[in-house]
Design goal:
Layout lengths: L10 E2 L2 H9 L8 E5 L7 H7 L2 E6 L2 H10 L6 E5 L7 H4 L6 E6 L5 H13 L3 E9 H8 L9 H9 E9 L4 E2 L6 E8 L3 H4 L3 H11 L7 H7 L4 H7 L15 H22 L1
Parallel strand pairs: 2-3, 2-5, 3-4, 5-6
Antiparallel strand pairs: 1-8, 6-9, 7-9
Helix pairs in contact: 5-7
Length: 273
């Protein structure tokens, strides 16, 4: 490529990799698939032959025009010029159906796209996704409690989906080559809020409070969020060490603590009113 891509894209050019990414979605013969950032169509070309319906969202106007012309005779392919983060997913998903999502996520908005997909998965719009992202971000998404990479993004991802780390690609798989390695993850959306007995909005807010300062203990983060020391002491679960940090805990003990704190606050509110 002689010109730098408009949005700093790194286009997938490894033939084996593009087939492996599409293969990871499984059988999509009867499925609708949304592709994020199709670029020059390396993945789009394969998907167009396999899925029932394909909607590809491309922000770059020139690329969207290129793809529209290229797939003009394939009625099952719809090229949409626009920003995935501003798209109304509900309007794209056929009524009564779920969709699969695939894409090479731009490094600088990977977290924003993931959060959008988690919200959509929670509303049962998205069933599964195969996503390529910077290796360091993928490591955080898939990290288990107790390791350095585990944090808010890990907890949020695993609260909303089952995460599989599939494979990693070197910079040479792209043109122009990026400065980082890229990892492909597969997500099966299966929100755990009902299973763990917590509400979506409240528990998401609680997780942000717990991970607010990674070097602080969980108790100190919660005190900074407005919980009184005596309030925490009254309900602190035996399963959580007093000096534990949030990164060392799985979702189950975090949910247990959240439910206990919520019960205390609801009881106090009922006394006041």
């Amino acid at each position: 490529m002689k010109q730098k891509p408009k949005f700093g894209q790194n286009f997938l050019v490894d033939d084996a990799a593009r087939h492996a990414i599409v293969d990871a979605l499984g059988d999509v013969a009867k499925r609708t698939v949304i592709e994020i950032g199709p670029g020059h169509g390396a993945i789009t070309e394969i998907l167009a032959r396999r899925c029932h319906r394909l909607m590809a969202l491309e922000l770059d106007r020139a690329l969207a025009a290129e793809l529209s012309f290229r797939f003009r005779d394939q009625t099952q392919v719809q090229i949409i010029e626009g920003d995935f983060l501003k798209a109304d997913l509900r309007s794209l998903v056929p009524e009564g159906e779920t969709v699969d999502v695939i894409g090479n996520l731009p490094y600088y908005i990977t977290s924003d796209i993931l959060l959008t997909l988690f919200a959509a998965g929670g509303t049962e719009l998205v069933s599964r996704a195969v996503l390529m992202m910077q290796r360091e971000v993928a490591d955080r998404v898939a990290a288990e409690p107790g390791v350095r990479d585990y944090g808010l993004l890990s907890a949020t991802a695993q609260m909303n989906a089952q995460v599989e780390n599939l494979f990693t690609l070197p910079p040479s798989a792209f043109s122009p080559p990026p400065d980082v390695y890229s990892t492909v993850l597969r997500l099966h959306f299966a929100p755990r809020f009902a299973e763990l007995g917590v509400d979506v909005e409240g528990f998401d807010r609680f997780l942000k409070q717990c991970f607010a300062q990674k070097r602080k203990t969980l108790q100190n983060n919660l005190r900074a969020a407005g919980y009184a020391p005596e309030e925490l002491a009254a309900v602190w679960p035996a399963s959580i060490p007093a000096q534990a940090r949030a990164e060392s805990l799985g979702l189950e003990p975090m949910a247990e603590l959240y439910r206990a704190l919520l019960k205390v606050r609801l009881r106090l509110d009922s006394v006041i009113f």
